[in-house]
Write a structure and sequence with these properties.
Layout: H1 6-21, E1 23-24, E2 40-51, H2 67-78, H3 85-89, H4 111-116, H5 119-129, E3 136-139, H6 143-146, E4 156-167, E5 173-187, H7 188-191, H8 194-210, E6 213-227, H9 231-239, E7 248-251, E8 266-269, H10 273-279
Parallel strand pairs: 5-6
Antiparallel strand pairs: 1-2, 2-6, 3-4, 4-5, 7-8
Length: 289
């Protein structure tokens, strides 16, 4: 019986926990496309952790994942520091269009917050000048920004970064870059592991920029949910057979500057995309908006 990735194992555990312990909300904000209130079933508080030096990965094989588009979204926020939906469209991503504040932006959130507060610039500077510091934090939860017109408040909103001195398997001195992500809300069945994958890639990119090695990645979720119309899909995912593989993130060796990287510079090797599509095809979801 195939074990799959560590992400596959966590996915099944989380979905089973939601089905066994989940709480149905009473007054949901979103609605389905037919206007019916989109209730969710959720649980609070959990953690998934990965040792990247051992090849552990949040990527899953239980369903196809839009890796390339998710990388584009990540770069739109942290490299481009943009809230412009036309810029995001250049990466092939349109799922933010429903949050358009009627000027083809999502307003004072995400990339706009990164730009206003120089969050990535200050992170890189701080890690380089004071690697042993414990205050290397990016927070997208900026209350002052929310006073301006904006779309959806950030879900994955906080990262904390630490440098750990050690030696690699060759016995050479190495600085490992560890990072944890805090997410206030995760629509787990539709978004799946996307946020985790995005931020592991972000960790790899910042580590490359600083000449460090990606170390441990940990994801803390506050509230994780599935929609009430997706219960059968959740059960199917739990029953699906994962595919044994060892996906690894590889960045173009010629790119050492975070701000010069593109989606084409990031490759996932050892990830059997076609086999996944054949064995565990994508699902269709009626999504709450």
């Amino acid at each position: 019986m195939a074990i799959g990735t560590k992400g596959d194992q966590y996915t099944k555990e989380i979905l089973q926990r939601i089905l066994d312990e989940g709480c149905m909300d009473e007054n949901p904000r979103p609605k389905y496309s037919d206007g019916t209130p989109a209730h969710t079933i959720s649980v609070n508080h959990g953690m998934c952790t990965y040792d990247l030096t051992k090849g552990e990965s949040p990527l899953i094989t239980l369903r196809p994942i839009a890796v390339k588009k998710s990388i584009g979204e990540l770069l739109w926020i942290y490299k481009d520091e943009s809230n412009n939906l036309e810029r995001l469209k250049e990466y092939g991503v349109t799922w933010w269009d429903e949050w358009d504040i009627e000027d083809r932006t999502i307003g004072a959130v995400y990339g706009e917050t990164v730009r206003r507060h120089r969050l990535v610039e200050d992170l890189i500077k701080g890690l380089r000048e004071n690697p042993d510091g414990r205050r290397h934090i990016i927070s997208l939860w900026q209350v002052e920004d929310f006073k301006d017109k904006h779309g959806l408040k950030p879900c994955a909103f906080l990262t904390m970064w630490n440098v750990r001195h050690g030696k690699n398997e060759k016995g050479e001195k190495t600085d490992y870059l560890d990072m944890c992500l805090v997410q206030r809300s995760s629509d787990f069945l539709t978004a799946g592991c996307i946020n985790q994958v995005q931020y592991v890639i972000f960790q790899h990119m910042i580590a490359r920029h600083l000449g460090m090695t990606p170390g441990r990645f940990t994801w803390f979720y506050n509230n994780i949910q599935i929609y009430d119309r997706h219960i059968e899909q959740a059960k199917e995912i739990i029953k699906r057979e994962p595919i044994d593989c060892n996906p690894q993130i590889v960045i173009n060796p010629k790119k050492t500057n975070f701000y010069f990287m593109t989606p084409d510079d990031i490759e996932i090797v050892g990830y059997p995309k076609e086999k996944i599509k054949e064995k565990n095809p994508q699902m269709k979801f009626d999504i709450g908006i």
